[in-house]
Here is the input.
Amino acid sequence: MFHSTNPATGERFATHPELTADELEQKLAKAATAFDQWRRTPIAHRVTLLRAVADRYDANRESLARMATDEMGKTLKSALAEVDKCAAAFRHYADHGPAMLEPQRTELTGGGTAEVTWLPQGPVLAIMPWNFPYWQAVRFLAPTILAGNVALLKHASIVQGVAALMEEMALEAGAPEGLFQNLAIKSSAIADLIADDRIVAVTLTGSEGAGVAVAEQAGRNLKKVVLELGGSDPFIVMPSADLDAAVKAAVTGRIQNSGQSCICAKRMIVHADIYDAFLDRYAAAMRAVKAGDPTDPASDMGPLSSFEQRDTVLEQLAEAKRQGATLLFGGEKPDLPGAYLTAGILTDVPLDSPLMAEEIFGPIAMVFRAADIDDAIRIANAIPFGLGSAVWTQDEAEQDRFVRDIAAGMTAINQMLASSPEAPFGGIKRSGHGRELGPFGLHEFMNLKTVFRP
Here is the structure.
């Protein structure tokens, strides 16, 4: 049995039954049957379904958003924005996806042509986290529908209400039975699921440990896997930067979703010439962040997703101080009933500290002083993660240097890093491999078939 607990109040408000072995088998059988039909469905019909699903998200945006707020604590305004972003993603693949699937022909030097065509492969299993419960899943679902594959979602245990609503939206839009199914199962069932011959590929967004386990199982069964395993993104500020804009983005980047975002700016690396000025402004802005009722528009952030998640962050802060870091302020439990934590700043974190190899999933920033651009890049790369990054400089030569030398899958220049349906999303190193979104995300789980013609 899974439980929905409101982290803003601690109140348990719903329960969701776990699938039995027989029920899971029935869903796998439905997925296989649905794929045999859906793979032959004209692309124009798939596009029609994508638009219909987007319409359902628009029509139900308030109730969808409220479920995310109630289950994992994000502010209602951010939940509404997430639902809208999902609708936009469905429409993006409806509008632009067919062109991404057009065959590509090449003239061969020996005569004739080689044609590359994209074909669906079968049921794809998605293992998704709670922090962006709709968006993380839609990043996989929208291209899966267009590709002609079918989707099986194993969502996080604390957002089973969201998972059920997502399946409901697809069915209401006219999705064939079995095309998209929510699997209310525990993590212990994943290995056997990956081994099932009907599952052709796996995508996971989650922790490094979960990624290692899933990659091992996928490898044993010779199945394609895409992994997005989070990170500890650097946010570099150089002397030529617009300091006010950089500070504002650094605050938003660290507290959005209560700091529970894989591409949150987590490590602020600031050039020595402007370090003091940046830290003064940044500290003042972070002190002013208001944690409160996520349904109140005046709240800058809601609670963390659970009391367990808050305890994890508190343990990381205690360990950071033992390792020699300074907690300037924050990281406290406010006088509120839920899993709240105040925004805070850590300085003097030793570069050889174990904390550097961890991701703080909460509204706590680490601020570092860099002597020059070489030092900034060294600090940025001195961790095992490589998901995103942001750099603030007006110097084009410095911009080019950062793009070339920061070891990450993504770099934002003079803006906060964010995901978009149009652009590929993913990382390198211990942040995983493969890409979501854009044409690359569409093609990840398709068969690139080469056809030779005279």
